[in-house]
Amino acid sequence: MTTAAILTAAGSGTRLGHVLPKALVPLAGEPLVVHAARRLASCGVVDLVVVPAPGDHLAAFESVLSAADLGVPVTVVTGGMSRQASVAAALATVPPDVDVVLVHDAARSLAPSSLAERVVQAVRAGRRAVVPGVPVPDTVVEVGPEGPTAVEDRVPGTVATAGATAELVTGNPDRSVLRSVQTPQGFDRALLDRAHAAGAHRAGDESLAATDDASLVAALGEPVHVVPGDAAAVKITTPRDLALARLLLEEHG
Ligand code: CTP
Ligand code: MG
């Protein structure tokens, strides 16, 4: 029984807007990727970590990860054009004796060790694809185009000047059955291999690529299970998220 964790870190962090790739951006003096890797390595159920990173920053990733002295082997590989391609590149290097794979985002830097442990336990208990999920706090609607005449039709004589910026609500899903999906996600290794092989044609195009691994498994028609997520596993996307992460770290460590 060997568990590998793939820690995606090959994104550029366009929305964060830092000169460094997002995963190298410091939070309380340590790069985001180190925060995430440390929590994975210390959960007690991860035997090795593979980090797909931007090809032009491999040495920097190797240097910060080896300096962090995580206590489990960490390898850095060149990522791909999309998150899906980066996971596939890392998965191709995972040794054959690994039977469970966690896939986690360096951008979810403060996801606690207990969350990785919970996900691996659920996979080891026989669920072959497991994601953490948290309830959705807002009312969520489905939208479609408003159409050129939607306003005029209902209010005769008005001009649809707002039409350029408004959308029409087309669905009101029941919030109680919705979950926001986080990482780390856990998989039976053979199933994850199969899901990536089947979805490989999408990986080269960021607009077609899967945004997580569980959706590739679901596309095979295989069940995906949800375990309770953790508020600290929120994804750092914008400067505001980074500021919130700093506060979280000060409060909870
Ligand atoms: N990722 C990756 N390879 C890519 C794109 C993204 O490994 N080609 C990783 C990121 O490093 C991140 C995770 O996927 O850990 C989620 O992506 P996101 O939050 O979108 O990060 P970035 O793509 O770096 O940010 P942005 O979209 O703002 O550029
Ligand atoms: Mg991105």
From TrEMBL:
Enzyme Commission identifier(s): 2.7.7.60
Positions marked as site (Transition state stabilizer): R15, K22
Matching Pfam families: IspD (PF01128)
SUPFAM superfamilies: Nucleotide-diphospho-sugar transferases
GO biological process: isopentenyl diphosphate biosynthetic process, methylerythritol 4-phosphate pathway
InterPro entries reported in the protein's UniProt record: IspD, IspD/TarI, IspD/TarI_cytidylyltransf_bact, ISPD_synthase_CS, Nucleotide-diphossugar_trans
Enzyme class: transferase
Keywords: Isoprene biosynthesis, Nucleotidyltransferase, Transferase
Annotated GO MF terms: 2-C-methyl-D-erythritol 4-phosphate cytidylyltransferase activity
Statement: the UniProt record of this protein carries the keyword tRNA processing: no
Job description of the protein: Catalyzes the formation of 4-diphosphocytidyl-2-C-methyl-D-erythritol from CTP and 2-C-methyl-D-erythritol 4-phosphate (MEP).
Entry similarity comment: Belongs to the IspD/TarI cytidylyltransferase family. IspD subfamily.
Protein name: 2-C-methyl-D-erythritol 4-phosphate cytidylyltransferase
